[in-house]
Design goal:
elongated, 156 residues, disordered C terminus, single chain, mainly alpha
Length: 156
């Protein structure tokens, strides 16, 4: 049974096959950057992402917050996940539906994350180049990342 404090995408997919872990989705072959570059980018963008989320919520409420941060419904994607999913989406590896499946959320949530993160990337002058690898299923990604099967990389 999953712990409630555990991120949703760490749970095995319902009726799914292999579950990709966050470390696998951060692979340089998928993100187009080293793990350190990705970590630095996430650390750079998170404050701006949280600030823009707070501004949007303030505008929606029409008033300052009345309860402490951290109360209420938890978002299905952490800020770091929102940045990662946006990078994967901008790399054009797959459709939002597959990303939603990988992160155990909906395509609409993926779309919202991309809409929120893309302006921050642009503001920092960061361009995410598209990849030539395309995936339809989580198993396609698993095979792509398999070090014993390098020929799949050119076949995707």
């Amino acid at each position: 049974r999953p712990r409630p404090d555990r991120p949703r995408h760490n749970r095995p997919p319902a009726g799914g096959s292999h579950s990709l872990m966050p470390e696998e989705l951060q692979h340089p072959e998928l993100t187009g950057m080293t793990r350190q570059q990705l970590s630095d980018l996430i650390n750079t963008l998170i404050p701006g992402l949280e600030e823009s989320r707070e501004q949007a919520r303030h505008a929606a409420r029409g008033a300052p917050r009345r309860v402490a941060r951290g109360t209420g419904r938890k978002p299905s994607l952490t800020p770091a996940d929102q940045i990662l999913v946006t990078i994967l989406y901008l790399r054009k590896h797959s459709l939002q539906e597959l990303l939603g499946q990988l992160f155990n959320t909906t395509a609409m949530t993926i779309s919202r994350a991309v809409k929120d993160v893309r302006p921050l990337l642009e503001a920092h002058g960061i361009h995410i180049p598209a990849s030539t690898a395309r995936f339809r299923t989580p198993d396609d990604i698993t095979r792509f990342l398999d070090p014993d099967n390098p020929k799949i990389k050119s076949a995707c």
